[in-house]
Amino acid sequence: MAFDMKKFLGRFVEEAREHVQKLNAGLVVLEKEPGDSENINAIFRSAHTIKGSSRMMKLTAITETAHKLEDALGALREKKIGHSKELADLLFKAVDAISDMIEKTSSGEELTADNSALCEELANAAEGKLTVKDADKGPAPAVPKVEEAVTSEEQTETAVTEDVQPKVRDAGQEKPAKESARAKASDTVRINSDKLDELIKLMGEIVSNRNRLKQRLLDVREVERAALRHMEMLLDMDPEQGPVNGCRDALSGSAHALYIKARELLINIRDDANISDFLTDELQGKALTMRMVPLSTVFDSLHRMVRDILRSLGKEADFIVEGGEIELDKKMIDKLGDPLVHMIRNSLDHGIERPEERTKAGKPACGTLRLSACYDAGSVLIELADDGGGIPLEKIRGKALRKRLLDEQEIAGMTDAALVDLIFQPGFSTSAIITDVSGRGVGMDVVKRNIVEDLRGAVRVETRAGLGTAFSIRLPLTLAVMRILLIEASGTIFAITAHYVAEIIRVPEHEFMRVVDKRAIRLRNEFIPVTDLSAILKMPGDHGGKRDTYLVIIVRVSNEKLGLVVDALLDEEDMVIKSLPPHMKSINLVSGVTISGKNEIINVLHIPAVIEAAGKMREAVHAPAGQAGEKAGLNILVVDDSVNTREIEKSILESYGYTVTVAGDGVDGFEKALEFKYDVVITDVEMPRLDGFSLTEKLRAEPAYKDTPIIIVTSREKEEDKRRGIQVGADAYIVKGSFEQTTLLETIRNLAG
Fold it and tell me: What integer best gives the mean pLDDT of the chain?
């Protein structure tokens, strides 16, 4: 009986895709390290495997191309030919042709492409007769779609493997730590991802049901207490006023029996609930682990894209990838490909300069693009950083005015961070020309939508002129079940996902400080703005009412923190978050809903939007009467590595009419001071790269700042620190612990008046 090979087609496509990815990654490494024999052996084996498996599937076109690719790689391995730019282009061209045929095979299309010319070129290359045709032009940028970088659900099977030794990754090349690390067939079961998704959904419902079981336990406990109260009332009953003694004894005996039964029921349910908790936690952990995959699933496919884009732009850069072993839920990784592609394209096109520009600026001709990932406080932090020219803030201002996103007055009052956030607006681009790489104004809005809305994460941008730009993405580990804090504000219950919560504190009334007409607290030498949650949500209540202490939840998005005053912290649970229906997507302060044990619908607050709304409330504050414009001509530079601290100081100073520029550390502050002559400089002490003492010393060495007032605002209270401040040339030394806005303002008036 003839063998039906079609049922093996899916497995062939899956395996072939993996080898194409290894070929792309290995060829990128080959360009940088042509003498790496182990890498050449690895990519040779991948070509050989594709040739053999396609031959078994009777896919002749794939077999022939893979065979000629193998011959060329074999000649390179045996040192019959040397590596060259032209050979690299030809090898990549062959891999692209094989990849295209594999995808057509997957979709059921007939393989009609004529690759005879390509095969002839590969054969000539193997004999050392490579003819340069279009190779010198370089291939078009191969920007993979997300479904290419991360296989779609319909085509994926997830391998659940036990006792598989870890793999060592080197510059995108996957190498087994030992030959025995390969999983045996008996150790691996392939599961269709749709089936796995159903398991995760079921696990989520079990977790939700556990919360209802806990509520039932509370209900039974209340019944027990009611029975106990009833029995005590009967025992205390006055015989003259109540039933006769015999009836009283019978009632008390019945109440006691009821109490005993309720007590036994409570104990049994509590034991069952504890067992259920243990089993549910085990199920949750095992089920979520099954769908966790390493970020290398996405990261490894990006090397080829970076290489091709750099070739098309005529630029040079080292692409460094770290943290590919960090694991995320596959559902999240499926949606992570697009944002990473868009950010990388922008970094290469807008960020990294051309070699001649970098050399002129005193930089190495070859730039650096670093993609890294790590676990951080129950979240995953992904950072993409380049050492390019940075994001031009003036271009952003100009583009925002031309597109009428904001008026001149609004733009003038914006911080640098707020300006940079404009790049996430749909259709916004600072590029002077539209190319096939970037400039169309699409992409960065996709980044924010995918990260913030779909993945419930946060994205932050830090840029420094001439030094580069860093994109930071913070994501929860999974969206299937999330740790949630239940809080109460103005009599309504809300939920906050735990990965946004930095800490929860109680703050006495006297520890609050006034910033214009808002509140702030000093927490471990950092100023943190504080706002009533009910005020942000515009809920009824006495927002300004006085209390002895306040319950404050410190929430964090990247480096920005906000204190939310709430009425009560009710519980902390693992819960399933349901997405909002389409007609409610415009409610930006809410990211979803969850169901309580009492079957109540609870809104899950979208903390990035809450912080943004609180910021707008602060920005809307007007200067006190008679003070605005008092020193409107005075330009002040505020230098502090804490976002919250420098923004609070900026708010105070701007409310009194001063023009304020902020800097994130001493180096940034010094560079800005050289670009523009400020009338007053306010600096912290403890900062990365250059501390406040050293900054003051460097400024005093500049003729322009020989007599400029410099004020140090720091948490250091020791006398030797104050003496050091005087020695380096500071005019005033204000301790944050005793900080009041009137002190700062009076100091500025005295020094600059």
Answer: 78
Q: Strand, coil or helix: what is 558?
A: coil
Looking at residue 183, its pLDDT comes to 39
Q: In sequence order, what E strands does 359-415 have? A: 367-376, 379-386
CB atoms within 10 A of CB 709: 20
- Dist. CA 452–CA 746, nearest whole Å: 42
pLDDT of residue 413: 67
Name the more confident of 617 and 732: 732
| Residue 240 to residue 237: CA distance in whole angstroms | 9
How far apart CA 580 and CA 589 sit, in angstroms, is 12
Q: Are 416 and 393 in contact (CB under 8 A)?
A: yes
Separation CA 215–CA 222 (nearest Å): 11
Q: What are phi and psi of 682, to 5 degrees?
A: -115, 125
Distance in angstroms (rounded) separating the CA atoms of residues 631 and 636: 11
The pair of structure tokens assigned to 357 is 């520009």
Reduced to 3 states (helix: H, G, I; strand: E, B; else coil), residue 505 is: strand
Among the residues of 484-600, which ranges form H helices? 533-536
pLDDT digits (tens, 9 = 90+) for 4-13: 556 678 778 8
Asked if 733 contacts 712 with a C-beta cutoff of 8 angstroms, the reply is yes
Domains of the chain: 5-139 (1.20.120.160), 195-290 (1.10.287), 317-476 (3.30.565.10), 482-619 (2.40.50.180), 635-752 (3.40.50.2300)
Helix 37-56 and helix 60-77: axis angle, to 10°?
Answer: 160
pTM exceeding the 0.85 threshold for the entire prediction: no
Segment 511-538 mean pLDDT = 81
Which residues fall within 8 angstroms of residue 463, CB to CB, at 6 or more apart?
390, 391, 420, 469, 470
Q: How far apart are CA 406 and CA 401, in angstroms?
A: 6
The three-state DSSP-derived secondary structure of 277-296 is: HHHHHHHHHHHHHHCEEECH
Sheet holding 379-386, edge to edge: 317-322, 367-376, 379-386, 468-476, 458-464
DSSP state of 467: T
Indicate the range of 306-310, 414-418, 644-648, 704-708 predicted with least confidence.
414-418
Element (H, E) at 102: helix 85-106
Residues 72 and 92: beta-carbon distance below 8 Å: no
pLDDT at 133 over 60: no
Confidence of residue 249 (pLDDT cuts 50, 70, 90): low
Give the span between the Cα atoms of 683 and 699, in whole angstroms. 12
**pLDDT bracket for residue 98 (50, 70, 90):** very high
DSSP 413-459: T--HHHHHGGGGSTT----SS--SSS-SS-SHHHHHIIIIIIS--EE
For 284-306, what is each residue's pLDDT tens digit?
777 777 788 899 888 888 888 89
